[in-house]
Design brief:
37% helix, single chain, 3-stranded antiparallel β-sheet, alpha+beta
């Protein structure tokens, strides 16, 4: 099991930036990148951080394009 955690322990650095990911607990709290949203961000997508509902909206907009 120790090999597993060392090998995959830092997965967020290798992950494709175009795929959304949850922010790790050790990452500093940031406000949502959506204009006028007072919520704290919980996800990152394309170097921007979003709360869950605005991440969904931004992904829906991307898929419709």
């Amino acid at each position: 099991m120790a090999q597993y955690t060392r090998r995959f322990g830092n997965q967020s650095q290798r992950q494709d930036k175009s795929q959304p990911r949850f922010l790790a607990r050790r990452e500093t709290a940031q406000p949502c990148n959506w204009t006028g949203c007072p919520a704290q961000a919980t996800n990152q997508h394309k170097d921007k951080v979003y709360c869950a509902s605005h991440l969904l909206r931004s992904l829906q907009q991307q898929w419709q394009e």
